[in-house]
Amino acid sequence: MGAPSDSRGAVIWRVVAGTAITTTILGLAAAGLAEPLIFPSLGPTIFLLLFLPLNVMSAPRNVIAGHGIGMASGYLALVLFGLLWTPPDLFDLSLTRVGAIVFALCLAFTLMIWWGVPHAPAAATALIVALGILRTPLDLAVMMSAVVTVVLCSFAVNRIARIPAPVWSPPKA
User: Fold this and answer.
1) What separation, in Å, do the N-terminal and C-terminal C-alpha atoms of the chain show?
2) 16 occurs within a structural domain
3) Digit-coded pLDDT (tens) for 63-95
4) pLDDT in tens, 35-64
5) pLDDT of amino acid 44
6) Is the distance from CB of 106 to CB of 159 less than 8 angstroms?
7) Would residue 111 count as lying in a domain?
8) What is the largest CA-CA distance in the chain?
9) pLDDT at residue 1 above 90?
10) Nearest one of 6, 9, 35 to 158, comparing CA atoms
């Protein structure tokens, strides 16, 4: 589970409390700033960071780099496929949009593996951007600030729970 000595109840408490704290902070900030600080790929990121804090995909380096790669891959796909100013339409995907999605996911996976920073939820970030849901440079900056907030909140919750979550790089195997 989370850490070798954790009981199931302690893990549930840590995950639920950490999720409530993190999403409350992001939700209040999103409401106050009217910015998209909560987006779908943050849910699985929060879960990984709190449930499997010692997993390679939960290392802050991998979370931040993975989401950054996802955002950059999705944005590059929009540019290359001429979709930067095309509004999203999830119900009537054009072949061009499908091409952008395939490109964004393949590039994101390639770069995360190549650079050794795997973070599976970042694939959803690539999709969010390639689908055009969040696509402006401001959107991407706001998304990254949310990712950093999630990392900081999760780190604090894990340290309070006495889990030696890594500060940056994954723990050595």
Assistant:
1) 17
2) yes
3) 999 999 999 999 999 999 999 999 999 999 999
4) 999 999 999 999 999 999 999 999 999 999
5) 98
6) no
7) yes
8) 52
9) no
10) 6
Could you write out the DSSP letters of every residue in the chain?
A: --STT--HHHHHHHHHHHHHHHHHHHHHHHHHHTS----TTHHHHHHHHHHSTTSGGGSHHHHHHHHHHHHHHHHHHHHHTT-TTSPP-TTS--HHHHHHHHHHHHHHHHHHHHTT---TTHHHHHHHHHTTSS-SHHHHHHHHHHHHHHHHHHHHHHHHTT----SSSPPP-
Question: What is the average pLDDT score of the chain?
Answer: 96
**C-alpha dihedral, 12 to 15 to 17 to 20, nearest 10°:** -130
User: Total structural domains in the chain?
Assistant: 1
Domain assignment present for 165:
no
The identity of residue 141, as a single letter, is A
- Please, what sign has the CA dihedral across residues 139, 143, 144, 148? positive
Domain that holds residue 118: 8-160
pLDDT at 121 (0 to 100): 98
Classify residue 123: in a domain, yes or no: yes
The number of C-alpha atoms within 13 Å of 164 and in the hemisphere containing its C-beta is 5
Q: What amino acid occupies position 149?
A: T
